[in-house]
Amino acid sequence: MLRRYYSKAPIQGDSTRLDDAEAHHILHVARIQPGEFVTLFDGSGCEFTAVVAACRRNEVELTINERRPVCRELACTVTVGVPLPKGDRARWLVEKLTELGVSRMTPLTTTRTVAPRASDQKKLARYVIEASKQCGRNILMKIGPTTSWDAWVGQAASSLRLVAHPGGEPVRNWIDEPGDALTLAFGPEGGLTTTEADAARAAGWQTMDLGRRILRIETAAVAAASTLTLGRGDMPHRSA
């Protein structure tokens, strides 16, 4: 796979330009020269083979040689609601959910968590882009607005909704459950309150148990998402 770069502007026509962090990487990190080829994606589901036409101080112009619809998404839409851990742990969580093919991640607030700062929210989108560049996804995982636990469990509409909570069915038991949309919810490291767990059950959520050990937030979310996506068969879609 050629070196991949993300264009925040839709790529249309026979040329495009990069003038942000991606241009900086091409110019000052990878030191790519005019005439060299790269792969671009713009979140539309397509890949573009492009040749660097000109390099300026803070801008790169590229000529588009080929446009290819390439889908590496899951057959099942997966949505994850999870309180964000702090610092690099949040970055790791976002990166791994992106690599696993999760469609959407929503930060949650619960009785035992606080809302992330606006600056943290902005960083999440960049983490998604970097992980997508690495893993080959051409559609970005969406980051939803911070949502309260009660609102989250009340608004999710997928046919299979699972909340991680002790005493539920083992997570592996849900692998063969039918449905093309899956929504997962996770509480904070201090655990859900009885009221929060009851609210999820009352809204029709099923509980899944992740084992006898206490897992950190990011470990729980990635373990469950990987078990359910890979266990169901992460078969790639063919290019259109």
Summarize the structure.
With 240 residues, this protein is of the alpha/beta class. Helices cover 30% and strands 28% of the residues. It has six helices and twelve strands.
Specify Rg, calculated over alpha carbons: 20 Å
The number of strands is 12
| Helix content estimate | 25-40%
Q: What is the molecular shape?
A: elongated
> Which strand-content bin applies to the residues?
25-35%
SSE run = EEHEEEEHEHEEHEEHEH
What are the segments in which pLDDT stays under 50 over at least 5 consecutive residues?
236-240
CATH architecture of the largest domain: 3-Layer(aba) Sandwich
Please, what is the CATH homologous superfamily of the largest domain?
Answer: SPOUT methyltransferase, trefoil knot domain
Classify the fold: give the CATH topology of the largest domain. Alpha/beta knot
Question: Total domains, how many?
Answer: 2
Distance between the termini: 19 Å
Number of helical stretches of at least 4 residues: 6
Category from helices, strands and their pairing: alpha/beta
What is the residue-averaged pLDDT? 91
CATH class of the largest domain: Alpha Beta
Can you describe what's shown?
The protein has 240 residues and is an alpha/beta fold. It has helices at 21-29, 88-100, 118-135, 149-155, 194-202, 217-232, and strands at residues 4-6, 15-18, 37-41, 46-55, 60-69, 77-82, 104-109, 142-143, 147-148, 160-170, 181-185, 206-209. α2 (88-100) packs across α3.
SSE order and pairing:
Layout: E1 4-6, E2 15-18, H1 21-29, E3 37-41, E4 46-55, E5 60-69, E6 77-82, H2 88-100, E7 104-109, H3 118-135, E8 142-143, E9 147-148, H4 149-155, E10 160-170, E11 181-185, H5 194-202, E12 206-209, H6 217-232
Parallel strand pairs: 1-3, 6-7, 6-11, 7-8, 7-9, 10-11, 10-12
Antiparallel strand pairs: 2-5, 3-4, 4-5
Helix pairs in contact: 2-3, 2-6
